[in-house]
């Protein structure tokens, strides 16, 4: 095999820092301690906000800022934290711990507790943790594919990356980002969701237009149509239709016989450049075969987690063998579909409709006659998936943006993703410990996530409204049609349903207004507009995230 011999590369100019040959590792002693401490902070913020205020905060920007500050402490062993890649690992760990503790673990274990079965809290915690880890693993293995491409929006991830880059480089970029952050933080003081405008500067225009229309219909539906489009399972029906088509689009993609990678031409050309030198902006790192295997293995792992939950939850004595097998297979299917739909919405908009999609499977469980206790465990298991899937996508997007200038790119990118996944596992472990220690105290004070109460109350009341399933099926038709028209990349049906499910006053005007500004500014400034709008959008999201995290003081 011939080897390329080239002249030594000239030394980089003094203003350009040397690139590390290998990616920093989470097991570095100082970094490991920082990750554990930040994860504990994130886990406490997560359970406190979700139980007292019913909200969750993306703390990745908080972690990045803390890591930056640590790197500026004049101690030799802390100087390594000035690395943007170590800061990326720090934000990955804290955000993983926050979402894991709040949206996955505490919410899941609250379902059997509110249902009156405190004896099922510990089995539910074990099952939810398995679902959480599998959830993140599937995204880790699927990120960078045609289904979940790295160059998609993933807005909170872009915000985290721009924050880290601006802190590292300073200058005009830092000023623009800081200005957007101040405005976003001020917006939280006046209850203005300026993160919605930030997302509109970063995401897919068509997807976010449908999202804004959904928000508008939800807010003004009572005035325009004399009906609340958020009630009566209308948005859930739209989500069912869009979700079924989105699932079909994913299956069509996975079953394609040809490898449709952007690096295909490189591999077929004998004298082409090495794959690792491909343009990171256009290269898929996960082909259809690898994506297909990851999802199949994910389903198998979800099935194993459901078996563990069923055994620990005592379902063997409560259900027939055939019923138990059906419950296990349905729980695994619901978990996989839930994470995919939530992930696709999060990829385009930064919002993930976990509550709505979980509620859909709850209603389907009621419709097919799953008994109440097994259904409560199933709902807790399904609700544990999705948030970590979306959050891992945000974090890997941030890492991808920070690593894309490194050469050779491909091995550094793959190792960076692996270290980010390990950082997330550290966050998950800390979150598990925090929830295991704190749930009894929080629940004893009546501090229970509101969505868990909705799940439990719905299970107790059953399908008291006989028209619920009929309404969902009827509204599934327009949801499916819009999703089909938009295609896989735009996710228009899923985004319309997401907007219909959210009642946030004035968010529709912020999204649609920002889209108008974005289109007009791009015509005025040309390609240069994208970088500036990305910085402004990232700042608005970062400021809103800081404001949300600061609400722990109010709680």
Account of the protein in words:
With 555 residues, the protein is mainly alpha-helical. Helix content is 73%, strand content 0%. The protein is built from 22 helices and no strands. It has helices at residues 29-52, 60-71, 84-114, 121-142, 155-169, 171-189, 194-202, 205-225, 234-254, 264-268, 288-312, 315-318, 321-349, 354-367, 372-383, 387-403, 409-444, 450-461, 468-490, 492-501, 507-525, 528-554. Helix 4 (121-142) packs parallel to helix 16 (387-403), helix 8 runs antiparallel to helix 21 and helix 11 packs across helix 13. The longest helix is centred in the last third of the chain and has 36 residues, at 409-444. The protein starts with 28 loop residues before the first helix and ends with a helix. Residues 1-18 and 257-276 have low confidence and may be disordered.
List the helices and strands and how they pair.
Layout: H1 29-52, H2 60-71, H3 84-114, H4 121-142, H5 155-169, H6 171-189, H7 194-202, H8 205-225, H9 234-254, H10 264-268, H11 288-312, H12 315-318, H13 321-349, H14 354-367, H15 372-383, H16 387-403, H17 409-444, H18 450-461, H19 468-490, H20 492-501, H21 507-525, H22 528-554
Helix pairs in contact: 1-3, 1-17, 2-3, 2-5, 3-4, 3-5, 3-15, 3-16, 3-17, 3-18, 4-11, 4-15, 4-16, 4-17, 5-6, 5-16, 5-22, 6-22, 7-21, 7-22, 8-20, 8-21, 9-14, 9-19, 9-20, 11-13, 13-14, 13-15, 13-16, 14-15, 14-18, 15-18, 16-17, 19-20, 21-22
Which range does the strand content fall in? under 5%
Q: Tally the helices.
A: 22
The termini sit apart by 65 Å
Radius of gyration based on Cα positions: 23 Å
Number of strands: 0
């Amino acid at each position: 095999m011939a080897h390329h011999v080239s002249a030594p590369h000239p030394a980089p100019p003094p203003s350009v820092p040397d690139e590390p040959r290998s990616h920093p590792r989470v097991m570095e002693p100082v970094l490991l301690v920082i990750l554990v401490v930040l994860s504990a902070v994130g886990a406490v913020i997560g359970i406190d906000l979700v139980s007292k205020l019913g909200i969750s905060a993306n703390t990745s920007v908080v972690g990045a800022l803390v890591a930056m500050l640590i790197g500026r402490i004049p101690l030799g062993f802390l100087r390594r934290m000035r690395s943007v890649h170590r800061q990326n690992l720090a934000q990955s760990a804290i955000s993983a711990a926050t979402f894991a503790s709040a949206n996955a673990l505490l919410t899941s274990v609250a379902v059997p507790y509110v249902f009156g079965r405190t004896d099922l809290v510990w089995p539910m915690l074990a099952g939810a943790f398995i679902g959480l880890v599998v959830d993140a693993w599937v995204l880790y293995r699927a990120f960078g594919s045609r289904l979940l491409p790295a160059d998609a929006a993933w807005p909170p991830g872009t915000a985290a990356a721009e924050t880290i880059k601006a802190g590292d480089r300073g200058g005009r970029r830092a000023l623009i980002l800081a200005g957007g952050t101040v405005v976003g933080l001020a917006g939280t003081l006046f209850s203005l969701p300026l993160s919605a405008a930030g997302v509109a500067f970063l995401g897919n225009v068509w997807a976010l237009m449908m999202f804004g229309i959904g928000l508008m219909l939800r807010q003004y539906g009572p005035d325009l149509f004399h009906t609340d489009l958020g009630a009566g399972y209308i948005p859930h029906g739209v989500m069912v239709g869009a979700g079924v088509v989105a699932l079909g689009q994913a299956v069509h993609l996975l079953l394609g016989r040809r490898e449709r990678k952007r690096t295909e031409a490189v591999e077929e050309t004998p004298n082409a450049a090495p794959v690792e030198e491909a343009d990171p902006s256009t290269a898929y790192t996960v082909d259809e075969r690898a994506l297909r295997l990851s999802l199949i293995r994910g389903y198998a792992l979800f099935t194993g987690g459901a078996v563990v939950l069923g055994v620990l939850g005592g379902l063997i004595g409560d259900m027939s063998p055939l019923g138990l097998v059906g419950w296990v297979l349905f729980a695994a299917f619901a978990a996989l579909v839930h994470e995919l739909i939530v992930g696709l919405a999060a990829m385009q908009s930064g919002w993930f409709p976990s509550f709505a999609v979980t509620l859909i499977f709850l209603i389907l469980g009621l419709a097919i006659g799953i008994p109440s206790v097994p259904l409560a465990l199933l709902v807790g298991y399904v609700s544990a998936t999705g948030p970590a899937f979306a959050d891992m996508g945000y974090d890997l997007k941030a890492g991808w943006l920070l690593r894309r200038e490194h050469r050779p790119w491909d091995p550094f990118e793959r190792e960076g993703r692996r270290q980010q996944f390990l950082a997330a596992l550290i966050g998950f472990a800390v979150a598990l410990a925090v929830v295991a220690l704190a749930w009894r105290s929080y629940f004893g004070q009546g501090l229970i996530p509101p969505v868990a109460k909705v799940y439990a109350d719905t299970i107790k009341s059953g399908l008291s409204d006989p028209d619920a399933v009929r309404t969902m099926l009827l509204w599934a038709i327009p949801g499916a049609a819009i999703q089909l028209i938009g295609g896989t990349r735009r996710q228009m049906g899923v985004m319309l349903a997401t907007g219909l499910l959210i009642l946030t006053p004035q968010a529709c005007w912020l999204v649609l207004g920002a889209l108008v500004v974005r289109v007009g500014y791009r015509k005025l400034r040309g390609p240069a507009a994208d970088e500036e709008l990305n910085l402004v959008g990232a700042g608005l999201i970062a400021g809103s995230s800081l404001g949300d995290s600061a609400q722990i003081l109010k709680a």
